[in-house]
């Protein structure tokens, strides 16, 4: 049924308004990060800053090479971790999606069990640091997030609904082995599902700070999120102990507070936005995983 021009215009306007509401909070954060701290404290938050300033970014970038190193560490663990996660999850999900796999029920229940129960923080810390010996290693930031049972079940459902058994059987008739069937026939059909899981994994690695708090002491191996958190904690410590500090009151008041926090949000969020175009082509199709198709 063809929509009338009036209804079509109303639908487009509603979609545009909804898109603006989704983007506006981030744009507002960007504007606040470029606002002068004293003006912000006096006049409060405004859509258009009364006085522009880059003081917040100057304060954050005073860490110099440490911030650039943290960016490099985060990019490295995000790229390596996402590729490793996709490799392991795709193989595990494919195996438990095939009816011919004898132990598919056991490994499916095993994945679901890990979603409900885990060993806890202390046993995990002992395994990572003492058994695996990954203390102060970048692998301590990669391996704990490499396997996600929820992503396994999502991709398993995608394989079962989007990869026909006839394709697998045709590969076996042609004499192909399981790995050849998987890489030549199944993976090309699974790009929407893999792109969806890849995007989730990328966001997980990029935003992770807790593992660095547990396993990383070397300042040269601290990822971005943990580095920004340390900068904010240092700033809060200086402000809370200003009465016992030799720093003058005027200098303390000039230190950015809210604007620095907003600048940290921008620095942590802006780079990951550029990852979306690489997944956008398949992401919408991936969101329909498990849907009924005609």
Automatic annotation (TrEMBL):
Location relative to the cell: Cell membrane
Gene Ontology CC: plasma membrane
Membrane-related topology note: Multi-pass membrane protein
GO BP of this protein: transmembrane transport
Domain of life: Bacteria
The entry's keywords: Cell membrane, Membrane, Transmembrane, Transmembrane helix, Transport
Keyword Glycoprotein: no
Ranges for domain ABC transmembrane type-1: 71-276
Residues passing through the membrane, by range: 12-34, 71-94, 106-128, 140-160, 181-206, 260-279
UniProt keyword annotation of Transmembrane present: yes
Similarity field: Belongs to the binding-protein-dependent transport system permease family.
PANTHER family: ABC TRANSPORTER PERMEASE PROTEIN MG189-RELATED-RELATED (PTHR43744), POLYGALACTURONAN_RHAMNOGALACTURONAN TRANSPORT SYSTEM PERMEASE PROTEIN YTCP (PTHR43744:SF9)
Protein name (database record): Carbohydrate ABC transporter permease
UniProt organism field: Paenibacillus sabuli
Lineage of producing organism: Bacteria, Bacillati, Bacillota, Bacilli, Bacillales
